[in-house]
Amino acid sequence: MDENQPKVFGIMGYPLAHSLSPLLHNRIYEAMGQKAVYKKFETRNPKACLDQIKALGVKGLCVTIPYKERVLSYLDTLHPSALEIGAVNTILNQEGRLVGYNTDGPGALRAIKEVMDLKGSSCLVVGAGGAARAIAISLRKEGARLYITNRSPENGLRLARDVQGTYLGLEALKGMELDLVVQATSLGMYPNMDAWPFDPEILKAKMVMEVIYNPLETKFLRRAKELGAKVILGYKMFVYQAMLQIRLFWGQDPPLELMEGITQEALLHHESPK
Which of 5, 59, 244, 250 is deepest in the core (most CB within 10 A)? Predict the structure, then answer.
């Protein structure tokens, strides 16, 4: 690639209408003085997309739903952060070799540990996809007692087994008292904002965290607040995991306060780039 040309980064997933990553990354690269552009790679064929990434010389890629687990077999190697979790949300193109990383777990942990101590806490993770897996493994390492619930019992049971947790169906959640509930599915994400995995009224949670950041406050979080729970907005995890991705891409830390400001402003003004 011509050194005078901007370096190319991007995000791969489907759909991507909800994603604020291009807005955030492009603004931050500019603030960092980097000559680069961040694009959307919306695809239904992740393998073909990764072949294209190599051919185009794209330097780095963020991976979102539904490909965080599916891309594993298409990469040349996995960093321990991705190998342990079994999911990838960041790919570096190292001279044609695609290396997978995961920043979801550390990003979520930073958001949670700002407001509570996890050791010995009772935590329910809702979902069993890539983000749920990353968060569950991170919570377990912090000494939390883990419970998993999921629409597909098979996938939920598998995750519960992998993290030495307990799988519970919705019926078993009724009346349960928990220190933390992490909503780690895509239900409620823009534009399907009326969806949720269940009414949080069925249990008693002190703290509820959302991984969805668009909209700023999901139906699930609003209901949890009405019931008296403290909440962690999804944009917190989004910003923290993005900070770690940018550190991987550029080898330096981005301006975190600016990242938070850009994200909050975009979400408050309902900016959902197409």
Answer: 244
